[in-house]
UniProtKB/TrEMBL annotation:
Name of the protein described by the UniProt record: Beta-phosphoglucomutase
InterPro entries for this protein: B-phosphoglucomutase_hydrolase (IPR010976), Beta-PGM-like (IPR051600), HAD-like_sf (IPR036412), HAD-SF_hydro_IA (IPR006439), HAD_sf (IPR023214), PGP-like_dom2 (IPR023198)
Cofactor(s) the protein requires to work: Mg(2+)
Domain of life, source organism: Bacteria
């Protein structure tokens, strides 16, 4: 009993906030980066980065998209730069790389913890014979899965590096989830998407997936349902207990 409709044969999991608690580290790293950046600006709205900003502009999106979208909300526009820009560069990619450096330091300091309910669900899904993929906007997906001890569960990984290499649109576009389904050899209607980000739930709905599970880690159950989740749970273990 894994709480999915008949006909679903594959699971596509977001990583940060769904399988691991690293969404909290991402939020801390974004706040550190943006608050420092804004403090040195003379233009735009320079008020501190908030949890609302994280949910509305950054969560679930590829790194450069998050920088671009948040700064646009503050009336600030930067040159794009290049993916290998120095973290000190005043470019979209430079600010994104600054955030990534902050995140890697936090992972080194605090480690990565998988949610116990998510591990239980992965075990149940594997035992039921479902295919398992991870779809994350993070370029650190491989590292986070390895540190969390989740690599053995995952047959396919689509991450931020894949998004760049394949020129996929980031969430809320469905491209990365569709790439995950293709890699597993299933049609979108045969796959369930598991997401905690509003943009990720939108992507699952836009892609025509068979079931979209919203994971409410940030007290936004109503918004997850509004964006297209078929069901919202506090923890993936809730699905094992019969929630549908």
């Amino acid at each position: 009993m894994i709480g999915l409709p008949d006909g679903v044969t594959a699971c596509l999991f977001d990583l940060d906030g769904v399988l691991t608690s690293t969404a909290t580290l991402h939020q801390i790293a974004w706040k550190q980066t943006f608050d420092e950046f804004l403090a040195h600006r003379s233009d735009g709205d320079r008020s501190p980065f908030t949890p609302h900003d994280y949910a509305a502009y950054v969560d679930g999106r590829p790194r450069a998209d998050g920088v671009r979208t948040f700064l646009a909300s503050r009336g600030i526009r930067l040159p794009e730069g290049d993916a290998d820009d120095s973290p000190d560069a005043e470019t979209t990619n430079g600010v994104g790389n600054r955030k990534n450096d902050a995140l890697l330091r936090l992972i080194e300091e605090k480690g990565v913890q998988p949610y116990s309910g998510s591990v239980a669900y992965l075990e149940a899904a594997r035992a039921a014979g479902l295919s398992i993929g991870v779809v994350t906007s993070s370029a650190n997906g491989e590292h986070v899965l390895e540190v969390a001890g989740l690599t053995p569960f995952v047959q396919v990984r689509v991450d931020g590096l894949t998004i760049v290499e394949q020129r996929l649109r980031g969430k809320p576009a469905p491209d990365s989830f569709l790439a995950g389904a293709r890699a597993l050899g299933v049609a979108p209607g045969e796959a369930a998407v598991f997401e905690d980000a509003l943009s990720g739930v939108e992507a699952g709905r836009a892609g025509g997936f068979g079931y979209v599970v919203g994971v409410d880690r940030a007290d936004q159950a109503d918004q997850l349902l509004e964006r297209g989740a078929d069901v919202v749970v506090d923890d993936l273990a809730d699905l094992l207990n019969g929630a549908k």
